[in-house]
């Protein structure tokens, strides 16, 4: 499972991931090449972070 998040929604993304998956996630920065096309899961801003279990 992956969630994409902008700077504003990163706390919410981390909280939701833990609530849904019951494990602490890994937070990585979105690669520069993918940053333009990847949107935040909670708004229309470009994603800055990927929250995942891998």
TrEMBL record:
It holds the Pfam family YyzF. It comes from the Bacteria. InterPro entries: YyzF. NCBIfam families: CxxH_BA5709 (TIGR04129). This is CxxH/CxxC protein.
């Amino acid at each position: 499972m992956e969630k994409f998040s902008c700077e504003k929604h990163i706390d919410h993304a981390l909280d939701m991931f833990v609530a849904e998956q019951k494990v602490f996630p890994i937070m990585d920065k979105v690669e520069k090449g993918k940053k333009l096309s990847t949107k935040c899961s909670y708004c229309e801003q470009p994603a800055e972070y990927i929250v995942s279990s891998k």
